[in-house]
TrEMBL record:
Protein name: ATPase AAA
Pfam family, one: IstB_IS21
Any GO MF annotation of the entry: ATP binding
Record InterPro entries: IstB_ATP-bd (IPR002611), P-loop_NTPase (IPR027417)
Length: 79
């Protein structure tokens, strides 16, 4: 199940990103593809506006592979 932000939380995050837009760098990590972000942010309109700002002048690094934290957790459980 995808965690959902409250309407207020989503709006505050959007406001933060809007204030940082073209003023400084933002680093965001997610295990969800962009087309699933609406489930978290609640509305297509807010998600679209957020992604519009985040993907302008962007470098997207897609990393596929085993999770470092999961591997460490499994290693600790074995000992």
């Amino acid at each position: 199940m995808t965690p959902h932000l409250s309407k207020t939380g989503a709006e505050l995050l959007f406001e933060l990103i809007s204030q940082r837009y073209e003023r400084g760098s933002i680093l965001i990590t997610s295990n969800l593809p962009f087309d699933e972000w609406t489930e978290t942010f609640g509305t297509e309109r807010l998600t679209g506006a957020l992604l519009d700002q985040l993907t302008h002048h962007v470098s997207i690094l897609e990393m596929n592979g085993d999770s470092y934290r999961l591997a460490q957790s499994k290693a600790r459980q074995k000992t």
